[in-house]
Amino acid sequence: MGCSGSKSTATADDTKVPVSAKSTKMEAKKEYPASEAFTIPLEEDESPEMPLNETLRQPPKRIQQMLQEAAKAEPPTLEELEDKQQKAEHRRQELMQQKLEIIQKNAQMLMGRGHGGENDEEESGAGNGGNENPDREEEKPDN
Fold first, then answer.
1. Is there a domain that residue 128 lies in?
2. Quick check: 96 and 90 in contact, CB under 8 A?
């Protein structure tokens, strides 16, 4: 006996398909579609000059305009580049300082919660729930 999910295998006697039919099915699966081949020219002399971008689409107009403006504009000077780099460094330092302040503020809040929670229990008397000091008896009001 086996698991209910197991399947029994068919023997050669149980199959109703003749052996020749099986072999034709296997041969049909082995048939592959015809291969397609192409050649890649290695020498430029043999191939006609065809630009690659002929098949590619043109970029959008706004990008074409940006490229034209960039071509017309003068390249930035060394002083301009240094000025931009200094401004970027200043902004980076400000952002790092802001992040550091936020992290310190969050750390103080977490530390305040951790210490504040323990102090609140001791001050309110809730810490005696486990009878830490058995010699001390609490007064119970008479009803």
1. no
2. no
Q: Do residues 128 and 138 lie in contact, with contact meaning Cβ atoms separated by under 8 Å?
A: yes
What is d(CA 100, CA 106) in angstroms, rounded to the nearest whole number? Answer: 10
DSSP class of 47: S
Q: Is the dihedral of CA 26, 31, 32, 33 positive or negative?
A: negative
15's tokens: 């199959």
In a domain, 112, yes or no: yes
pLDDT 10s digits, 76-89: 899 999 999 999 99
The pTM assigned to this predicted structure is 0.33
Structural domain span for residue 81: 77-122
Looking at the domain assignment, is residue 91 inside a domain? yes
Q: Are 10 and 22 in contact (CB under 8 A)?
A: no
